[in-house]
């Protein structure tokens, strides 16, 4: 079979920025082993598989080494592809049925942005796993844990940007978010996300971590609408807004390549 395949930069306003994702459009069920093989071949932080269902679409995400429970940038990329390819009317809301997080929604916001409606993931105070501080080379100001993994606040944006963790040691620990308040006016907080255990040394821009970052910084900064900057080499802005027990994530997407899997 030939499967339509798209390469999309998500949380990006220009090509070659933000976080790249592959999006495969399926018209019939396929097994998880095949999806995992495709994701390993794509070798991006996430590959999304989208299949039409009554009232929406099935959506699954795979890293190069494992199926993911939640992925923001590949969901944003998937919605972008559905609208761009004409499979979904541009005024329609994209409804995605997922294995682990139920129904997710995506809709067009203002200024060509896409808004994702995701479950909130408030971090709870917690000690870090043994060896985490040494592997990060960080001086924690506050530590917690969320569904996305360990959560570390440091004192300054410069500390976040300067981190050079020992990825080999981190590969034996859980994923970790490192964050601080922002130094300048263009964004409210910064973060980086390391997940070598799942084949992702550092994720460029991560929607799911912002489900934890949004409630964390909203409480500390006293505002429910914020802008985060993920300070990876590619970098990207993520607008966040709290809505009850949900987080609205906002960003743009750019298609870089279109083709098909010849299998």
Set down the secondary structure blueprint.
Layout: E1 3-10, E2 19-25, H1 32-42, E3 46-53, E4 56-62, E5 67-68, H2 72-85, E6 94-97, E7 103-108, E8 114-119, E9 124-125, H3 132-136, E10 142-146, E11 149-153, H4 157-162, H5 167-170, E12 176-181, E13 189-195, E14 200-203, H6 207-221, E15 225-230, E16 236-243, E17 246-251, E18 253-261
Parallel strand pairs: 2-3, 4-6, 11-12, 13-15
Antiparallel strand pairs: 1-2, 1-18, 3-4, 4-5, 6-7, 7-8, 8-17, 9-10, 10-11, 12-13, 13-14, 15-16, 16-17
Give a written overview of the molecule.
The chain folds into two domains: 3-118 and 249-261, Diaminopimelate Epimerase, Chain A, domain 1, CATH 3.10.310; 124-241, Diaminopimelate Epimerase, Chain A, domain 1 (Roll). The longest helix is centred in the last third of the chain and has 15 residues, at 207-221. It has six helices and 18 strands. By secondary structure, it is of the alpha+beta class. The protein is globular, with a radius of gyration of 18 Å. The chain has an 18-stranded mixed β-sheet that branches. 44% of the residues are buried.
